[in-house]
Design goal:
The structure is a single chain. Helix content is 45%, strand content 15%. It is an alpha/beta fold. The protein folds into two domains: 144 residues, NAD(P)-binding Rossmann-like Domain (Rossmann fold, 3-Layer(aba) Sandwich), CATH 3.40.50; 133 residues, no CATH class. The strands form two sheets. Strands 4-3-2-1-5-6-7 form a seven-stranded parallel beta sheet, sandwiched between helices. It has a four-stranded mixed beta sheet with strand order 9-8-10-11, covered by helices on one side. It is globular, with a radius of gyration of 20 Å. The relative contact order is 0.12. It binds NADP nicotinamide-adenine-dinucleotide phosphate. The site of NADP nicotinamide-adenine-dinucleotide phosphate (NAP) has 29 residues, from helix 1 and helix 10.
């Protein structure tokens, strides 16, 4: 029996994680759940899975959560610090599934506890990779990648042959605007951007997929997770999303992991790891596939990926700026304040305007991230 805590249980990854757990009541016990504002769903989940503790991020919702849980033996709390505190309840696996940099404090606190960390929340690693890995090293925690591409690489990554790896090849669906012209993308609405052809995901990552900023973040994520230099990480567009990523070795072998476009597969893989357990999700039926295709990224229409390489080559500060500017720009796009292509303009401007700085500590990262957000906000209002 593994005890599991889910940070961000009401989101897309959180829901899929609970689906997997529900299929294996003899293997998993949920100890704590956190959400930000969806108090009703959080309370339902907490009651259904008989958790010990539930936390709502928005302090104004504390009384609502308390009322919803009354009569049940579930303790509750509210606020950002309470989310961090929830990671201190002993758990064998913590699923980090909060969206954005908001997940960094609880991710760090979970890593400090040691144990298995199922990492879906990629933004903290993109911005604070050096600091995250330092704490992993110190605490002895094991970082397990949930992102489908990194999970695919994880499944075919031969640690003992790491120096025989020539390339990590991250596949990208190309998102909903893969074939769109600049003119069409200029007019793209949030509704069109979140309508991903292959995956059902939260709003922020869906927009990131449309701009291919998701793949940009994933290049940086792969750099930290697999300790690979930028020039050994490539991106290839694979519209069918069947091959989730590949590792090319120097003997010419290219190993890949395939599966349906269903996050239950990587989540199940990580929750069960190192054993293989059954997924409640979709299975791949290759007989129904007439074609698996691959193409280069069009860097003119999707400048995001080159931005990630430039940021990696420039240093951690640029990764922080890029991620922070993207978070602000995506939120502004989702609230109809800016056009889709403004996302790139805002990121570029923040990268240009913010002077680079050495980031020696987590506090340095938070301060630098805050300045990047302020610059991005100033470009919107
Ligand atoms: N969705 C996918 O298929 C997928 C695949 C690979 C990687 N990821 C990564 O996984 C992470 C989660 O993605 P998602 O699509 O599941 O996001 P999502 O559906 O938007 O869910 C986000 C979760 O985080 C909570 N949350 C939001 N803001 C918060 C804050 N300020 N403080 C604390 N909690 C907060 C939300 O609570 P409320 O519901 O109460 O707002 C929700 O539980 C992202 O980093 C994403 O890039 C997602």
């Amino acid at each position: 029996m593994r005890n599991v805590t889910i940070l961000g249980s009401t989101g897309s990854i959180g829901l899929n994680t609970l689906n997997v757990i529900e299929k294996h009541p003899d293997r998993f016990c949920v100890v704590a759940l956190t959400a930000y504002s969806n108090v009703d769903l959080l309370a339902q989940q907490a009651i259904k899975f008989k958790v010990k503790h539930a936390v709502i991020g928005d302090e104004a919702l504390y009384e609502d959560l308390k009322a919803a849980l009354s009569g049940h033996e579930i303790s509750c709390a509210a606020g950002e610090e309470a989310i961090v505190e929830a990671t201190r309840i002993p758990a064998d696996i913590t699923m980090a599934a909060i969206v954005g940099m908001a997940g960094l404090p609880s991710l760090m606190a979970a890593i400090e506890q040691g144990g298995f960390i199922a990492l879906a929340n990629k933004e903290p690693l993109v911005a604070a990779g050096a600091q995250v890995l330092e704490v992993v090293e110190r605490s002895g925690a094991t970082l397990l990648p949930v992102d489908s591409e990194h999970n695919a690489i994880f499944q075919v990554f031969e640690k003992d042959n790491a120096n025989a790896i020539e390339r990590l090849i991250l596949t990208a669906s190309g998102g909903p605007f893969r074939d769109w012209s600049f003119e069409e993308m200029e007019k793209a609405t949030p509704e069109q951007a979140v309508a991903h052809p292959n995956w059902t995901m939260g709003a922020k990552i869906s927009v990131d997929s449309a701009s291919m900023m998701n793949k940009a973040l994933e290049v940086i994520e792969a750099h930290y997770l697999f300790e690979m230099p930028a020039d050994k990480i490539e991106v290839l567009v694979h519209p069918q999303s069947v091959i989730h990523s590949m590792v090319e070795y120097n003997d010419g072998s290219v190993l890949s992991q395939m599966g349906a476009s269903d996050m239950c597969t990587p989540i199940t893989n990580i929750l069960g790891w190192p054993r293989r357990i059954a997924t409640p999700g979709e299975k791949l039926d290759l007989s129904k596939m007439s074609n698996l295709s691959f193409e280069q990224v069009d860097n003119a229409r999707f400048p995001s990926i080159q931005m990630a390489y430039d940021a990696l080559n420039s240093g951690q500060a640029a990764c922080v700026s890029m991620n922070a500017a993207n978070e602000i720009a995506v939120a502004a796009f989702l609230s109809h304040k800016i056009a889709f292509l403004d996302i790139y303009k805002i990121i570029r401007e923040v990268l240009d305007k913010q002077e680079t700085a050495p980031l020696k500590s987590l506090n340095d990262v938070f301060s630098y991230d805050k300045v990047a957000r302020d610059i991005a906000e100033s470009l919107i209002h």
